[in-house]
Amino acid sequence: MRLSEFWELAADVFGDSYAPTLARELSLTKLDSMTPSAALEAGIPARDVWHAWCDQMDVPLALRDGRDPHRTVPRRR
What we know:
By secondary structure, the protein is mainly α.
């Protein structure tokens, strides 16, 4: 998953205004309490950050691909 795709998905799922705030503020328990932004800066793959973020926020699997019906998020490793 490219970083641009990650941010597009974040905007689709969490909203244009709320996604950046969550990315800076939300501690992800599955990633040693790093925020999504910090995890990406630390070199954790975007797909892993995305799945941890969605798990933390209880995003249903059906909504994790965002609004684009042709987009498919890479599976977990």
